[in-house]
Design brief:
The complex is a heterodimer of chains A (161) and B (783). Chain A folds into two domains: 4-80, Beta-grasp domain (Ubiquitin-like (UB roll), Roll); 89-160, DNA polymerase, domain 1 (Orthogonal Bundle). Chain A has a five-stranded mixed beta sheet, with helices on both faces. In chain A, α2 runs antiparallel to α5 (143-160) and α4 packs across α5. The relative contact order of chain A is 0.15. Chain A has 161 residues and is an alpha+beta fold. Chain A has helices at 26-33, 89-96, 106-117, 125-132, 143-160, and strands spanning 4-11, 14-21, 52-55, 58-61, 74-76. Chain B is an alpha+beta fold. Chain B has three domains: 17-25 and 475-622, Aldehyde Oxidoreductase, domain 4 (2-Layer Sandwich), CATH 3.30.365; 31-133 and 194-246 and 251-284, Aldehyde oxidase/xanthine dehydrogenase, a/b hammerhead (Aldehyde Oxidoreductase, domain 3, Alpha-Beta Complex), CATH 3.90.1170; 365-456 and 628-779, Aldehyde Oxidoreductase, domain 4, CATH 3.30.365. In chain B, 28% of the residues lie in helices and 25% in strands. Chain B has 19 helices and 31 strands. A seven-stranded mixed beta sheet of chain B has the order 3-7-1-14-11-12-13, with helices on both faces. In chain B, strands 9-17-16-15-10-31 form a six-stranded mixed beta sheet, with helices on both faces. Residues 778-783 of chain B have low confidence and may be disordered. Classes of the chains: A alpha+beta (161), B alpha+beta (783). The interface between A and B is large, with 55 and 56 residues.
């Protein structure tokens, strides 16, 4: 017998009421129940970070969290970053610095980067390398990713004054 | 819109980026298909054995299970890769194992259910009874009586190539002032694209077609594999490759699971999908690289190589992968071992051995990471023995500018490159970066590594034909069509998956049509949309796919000029296409917009007399012989004596791929390739137990490096334009991966210079380095 639960979650600013099986991962709920396929699954054991999303502002692996654990929580996925046609500053910096090739790991790195940038860091290249080493990319060798996050950290710091 | 004198050479931002950054790319598993069923595979728990029973009854009774299929349900179909050589033994890889299992993880049964969760539940309820047999897993076991993997090849040898016999080689080696006999080894590794394999298959009655959407580099080759295995005409199979999350060669062969899913969809007349999980991907897809080189190299007193003899052994796993066969790696190794060096006498024997491990696919670099490691290792050991500088010995042996075109003992003609220039520039950069002072610092175990090498790219039909594959790749056919609005669609049989083809192909076409690249859209990855083509692998796509698109664009430009000439009452030879206009040369006021030309051709054909063929379409082909790009790599490394861990402190690449279409993309290919090469030198290995059980089934055991392990990589360009190609470019997709293992190994040996470590294998594990640095110099055996 399926073990179904009624849960409520706010995803990218929209409230959702869902009936989901207890064993279904949050990643599968986002992808299959909400159609938010920007969250990708690269390993399903919490190492690669392609499925990184923000839960109440904190980066989490959506493959290691069950959908029911997101009950009552606020979630942000990669689909929340752009404003209509306008990519946000981090997305633009990834493109400028060639921080993506195949694009599969990119949503995870963007959400990881957003979480880091939201802590208002003093930009520091070594620290950024350390932060982005939470996730795996197989195409870029990471240099463009580090460049992009550093640039946006610097710019946001300047705009904070 | 900005404009440029030429679009080629520009750091144009990638057309692919916005959708990837929004999360709106379409990877196979992102595509919804109403009520698609889900597949899960039941796999062999043992490396070798006889299947004595399969019981699917419990699984069939479970709720949500639609079908449970075995090999018999698929008519015992399989994939058969063929090399048309007497030295090759063809074997069949069954879609599902039926009598025997040949590696742990081999698929035996497929469960089709309403969800992946239910399919996996039911897969656990399938009972596969295997009577275990002895397994052979390692090249070191070869020689004695071995367990038989395939009855057709009792000695385990699936391919045995003796190439470039030279009767004088033996005596030359015997008389050489310095003879090095050495063995080099490379471990079994995984391409590990971030997206595992995935597919979605559906039989579509209206089109009388099986539509297979999957993550592949080679849609047409998948179509052939499916058509042959399921006995369908090629027309009845449509293969679509949407966005692909990395391939690196793993996805340039046809997976049996993908064909099983297609067969199941056809049989059930319902869409079926499968997403490979990471454990399956690491333990049961395709592997790469496991090889051993036993070489004998003779040098004269001046350090010039006199002769080279190689015995090359490749552990190809249990099956020949379709369609390239297990001959790819041995053939590449034997043919191209001499590399950038003038080796006057050369012979090689290259064999592929079947073992009880998953099959191998041509992982990025294909034997060349190993052959560069061998040649660079030999040069450095010879230098040390002869008291020569290790850069100087390379200078003395490298094919110099005045030697081009150089005909090697391996029968290859090397067209101009910048082998010496790259070496000198790279060494100069190491000085500028202060590496040598850093290396000399007291109390630090630091070394500088070097590798100078070439990469043969964009093999066309003539060169591939020498390999004698039953399916010989090489050419591409592109189509360029301008629509009534003046926008252009380009189609190509190549299939980019991260290399930025939508951007670079548009740059090539834009320069020929005089329009902005933003108005040019590349469509690829669909066998119904594009002409037959071979896909993306072997550093071929920009040169052959892009080259064919450039040829087609040139022809389309001629048509536009002809129409514009009629509209302007001018001579077509005087018409230039520039910034969206066709104008009379020297009379810029006499011009029409290309949009108006396009509209006239489509909507006002009655006003034109010069439009004989109707519409603005052209076709182009490219099929070059293959050409060598080259590069020199350098690395500065430090070994931690406490842990044996290695920090790659800095990395420099000087590379020459001819005309650079988009420097940003080229640099990205280089850096990503270097990261993979560093990975296979220091971190990654698919370890197996002696009885063939995989020990690395997760990313916790298989260590793909993170941003903390990969250094900044400086990339410098030399540009020797290639006159064998339409665009002057050479391929460059694999060079980073090819050069890095040799460079890292060279750096480690340099760091251990006081220990005479003589490392000749990758990966090099921290435990080994810790042991080496801990042993006093005097007690170590002289390598």
């Amino acid at each position: 017998m399926k073990d179904q639960h009624l849960v409520t979650m706010r995803v990218n600013g929209r409230e959702h009421e869902l009936v989901i099986e207890s064993r279904k991962t949050l990643a599968d709920v986002l992808r299959q129940d909400l159609g938010l396929t920007g969250t990708h699954l690269g390993c399903e054991h919490g190492i690669c970070g392609a499925c990184t999303v923000l839960m109440d502002g904190e980066p989490i692996r959506a493959c290691l969290v069950f959908g029911v654990q997101a009950d009552g929580r606020e979630l942000r996925t990669v689909e929340s970053l752009a404003d209509g046609d306008e990519l946000n500053d981090l997305q633009q910096a990834f493109s400028k610095h060639h921080g993506l090739q195949c694009g599969f790991c990119t949503p995870g790195f963007l959400m990881l980067g957003e979480a880091y940038l939201s802590t208002n860091p003093e930009p520091d290249r070594d620290e950024v390398r350390e932060v982005v080493s939470a996730n795996l990319c197989r195409c870029t060798g990471y240099q463009g990713i580090v460049d992009a996050v550093c640039e946006v950290a610097e710019k946001r710091k300047v705009s904070r004054g | 819109m900005t404009t440029a004198a030429t679009w080629v050479g520009n750091r144009l931002p990638r057309r692919e980026d916005p959708r990837m950054l929004r999360g709106t790319g379409r990877f196979t598993d992102d595509i919804s298909s109403g009520h698609a069923l889900h597949a899960a595979f039941v796999r062999s728990p043992m490396a070798s054995g006889r299947i004595v029973g399969v019981d699917v009854s419990a699984a069939l009774d479970m709720s949500g299970v639609v079908a449970v299929l075995t090999s018999a349900d698929l008519d015992d179909a399989g994939l058969r890769a063929v090399l048309e050589r007497p030295e090759f033994i063809a074997t069949t890889m069954p879609l599902l194992a039926h009598d025997r299992v040949r590696y742990a993880g081999e698929p035996v049964v497929v469960v089709i259910a309403e969800s992946r969760y239910l399919a996996e539940d039911a897969a656990e309820a399938v009972e596969v009874d295997v009577e275990e047999m002895p397994a052979v897993t390692s090249l070191s076991e070869l020689g004695g009586e071995l367990p038989v993997v395939h009855e057709e090849a009792p000695d385990g040898v699936l391919v045995d190539l003796q190439m470039f016999q030279d009767d004088m080689l033996e005596s030359a080696l015997e008389e050489a002032p310095l003879l090095l006999e050495r063995t080099f080894q490379s471990g079994r590794v995984h391409a590990a694209p971030m997206e595992s394999r995935a597919c979605l298959a559906e039989w579509v009655d209206r089109d009388e077609q099986l539509v297979l959407t999957l993550s592949t580099q080679v849609p047409h080759q998948v179509r052939t594999g499916v058509a042959q295995a399921l006995d369908l005409p090629e027309r009845a199979v449509r293969v679509i490759s949407p966005d692909v999350g990395g391939g690196f060669g793993l996805k340039c062969v046809v997976g049996r699971e993908e064909v099983v899913v297609a067969a199941a969809a056809k049989r059930l007349r319902q869409p079926v999908r499968w997403s490979e999980d990471r454990q399956e991907n690491l333990t049961a897809s395709f592997h790469g690289r496991e090889q051993e080189y036993r070489v004998r190299a003779g040098f004269d007193e001046a350090g010039r190589i006199i002769g080279l003899d190689a015995d090359i052994r490749c552990n190809i796993g249990a099956y020949s992968a379709f369609p390239f066969s297990c001959g790819v790696e041995p053939l590449m190794a034997a043919t191209e071992l001499p590399g950038v060096y003038k080796v006057p006498r050369y012979a090689a024997r290259a064999r592929g051995f079947a073992t009880n491990k998953p099959p191998t696919a041509p992982y990025r670099g294909v034997s060349r990471p190993q052959i560069v490691m061998v040649m660079e290792g030999l040069m450095e050991e010879a230098a040390a023995r002869l008291g020569l500088d290790r850069v100087e010995i390379r200078r003395r042996n490298t094919i110099a500018t005045e030697d081009f075109p150089y005909l090697g003992a391996n029968g290859i003609t090397y067209e101009p490159g910048s082998y010496i220039e790259a070496l000198e520039m790279c060494v100069e950069e190491t000085r500028k970066h202060g590496w040598w002072e850093s290396r000399a610092e007291e109390g630090k175990i630091r070394g500088i590594g070097l590798a100078n090498f070439s990469e043969r790219t964009a093999y066309g039909t003539a060169t591939m034909g020498m390999r004698k594959m039953a399916m010989t790749p090489g050419f591409e056919v592109a189509h360029v069509k301008m629509d009534a609005s003046g926008d252009v669609v380009v189609t190509s049989g190549t299939c980019g998956h991260g290399q930025g083809h939508e951007t670079t192909f548009a740059q090539l076409v834009a320069d020929r049509l005089g329009i902005h690249p933003g108005r040019i859209k590349l469509r690829q990855g669909d066998t119904d949309l594009t002409s037959f083509g071979w896909g993306t692998f072997g550093s071929r796509s920009l040169v052959i796919g892009g080259g064919s698109a450039a040829v087609a664009a040139r022809r389309l430009a001629d048509k536009i000029r002809t129409i514009a000439a009629e509209m302007l009452e001018a001579d077509a030879a005087d018409i230039e296409l520039i910034e969206g206009h066709a104008q009379v040369s020297g009379a810029p006021d006499a011009r029409v917009s290309i949009d108006d030309v396009a509209a006239n051709v489509h909507f006002r054909a009655h006003t034109l007399t010069s439009n004989e063929e109707q519409l603005l379409e052209a076709r182009g082909t490219a099929d070059p012989s293959g050409m060598f790009s080259n590069a020199c790599h350098a690395a500065l490394v430090e070994i931690d004596p406490g842990t044996g861990g290695v920090e790659v402190c800095d990395y420099i690449v000087v590379e020459d791929c001819g005309v650079v279409v988009n420097p940003m993309i080229v640099d990205g290919q280089v850096r990503g390739g270097v990261a993979q090469g560093i990975a296979s030198a220091l971190f990654e290995e698919l370890v197996y137990s002696p009885d063939g059980q995989p020990m690395a089934g997760t990313f916790m055991d298989y260590l793909v490096p993170t941003a903390s392990e990969i250094p900044q990589i400086a990339v410098h360009h030399l540009e020797t334009p290639c006159d064998l190609t339409e665009t002057g470019s050479k391929g460059m997709g694999e060079g980073g991966t090819i050069g890095a293992p040799a460079t890292i190994l060279s750096a480690l040996n340099d760091a251990l210079r006081d220990h005479r470590a003589g490392l000749r294998h990758v990966p090099v594990a921290p435990a080994e380095l810790k042991r080496l640095v801990g042993v006093p110099t005097a007690t170590q055996e002289d390598a």
